[in-house]
Amino acid sequence: MKIVGPTTQLGNTTEFSLCKGDVREYCMTHIFPGIDQKRFLEVFKKDIEIESILECVSDAELYYIENDHGRGEELYYFGKENNLFHGEIIWSKYHDFLPFLPSIPVTATYDKPSLFVGSKNNYTHQLIDCLPSLLFFEQINRILSTDVNTFIFGKNNSILDTLMEIPSVNKSISSAEKLYLNSLGSISKVGVWQIRRITFKKLYLVKHLSIFKAFKLFKSSLESLNTEHISKQTKTSKNIVYLAREDKRVINQEEIINVISSRKNSESLRNIHKLTYREKQQNLKQYANILLPPGSDNINGLCFSNNKSRLIQMISTSEDNILNDPFTSYAGLRYLIPFMHRTKLLRSEPNSNITGEYSGKWNINDIHTCL
Hints:
The protein is an alpha/beta fold. The chain has helices spanning 21-30, 37-43, 45-49, 123-144, 158-162, 167-174, 211-221, 228-232, 253-261, 277-284, 298-304, 364-370; strands at 2-4, 12-18, 50-67, 73-80, 83-85, 106-110, 114-116, 150-153, 177-180, 188-190, 193-209, 238-243, 267-269, 287-292, 310-315, 343-347. The chain folds into two domains: 2-220, no CATH class; 227-370, Rossmann fold.
């Protein structure tokens, strides 16, 4: 079977829209210093040029793939005839189960028209990949009035439950029938992977959303969360916040916390993932500067900060190397693109990532200079 990207059709194209020309101009104007412009435009070409792709696929094969290592992993492939779609093609080279997929038997069929939303035990993925797909479909469906009455998820989890805190999202999800893939069919085991193959008679699939569109949809959904006080608050009242990590990725984190805490109206926040969405918004909208360590918690700064706040993103690789690895480009830099105009990259000290590829030590004087 052939691994294809989002621009290769699996079914009938229901919606295909291009980004406005000012997106490319924005990227060329605000690209981070030290990053090669030509390479940047190549890597993020789809995000810059294509706003959305929505398809309706008949007799679609959905492969639900999971393992139980660590927090668990959930992956999805969609098959039609000889094509397999997952997302960005580059991720497929990490999937050793691919040669076995054609031999996995179909053990369940679902006949009702459905929308694939997806779910994953990953905070960033659900906020900026899964949820916007649902919001986008509902936006388009007001025009199309499709016959969809089922939303498809992988399995329920605590992160997915938190999305229900947003009133508009709660209303959307509650109004439809929910189908969890881990309750369908039977499992075929391939190494550490547990794979289900399910046929859907009519499957709607958001194959691509520009990162600009994804954040816009998520930010719009937060409007139903706002109190009058929060929605009218446009000025920041505090100086700096550092979103502290609970691991050793930032080698000199305690030193950074002490320095930040010594500054007027500045502090560090721990365990921000434990706060409700409303609490995250109330806390982060107060700060003029947000210092973001590497890792998934930075999504809170991107999603819940005041739209005038400066973002300082700590990175553990050099700017000229950040586009060479999908874990630092697609899974990292991509989420920063809509915020380039108010974000600065702060590199760790050279050769300081001795405890791991994505760890590092950050120079205090460099932090002072940024702030």
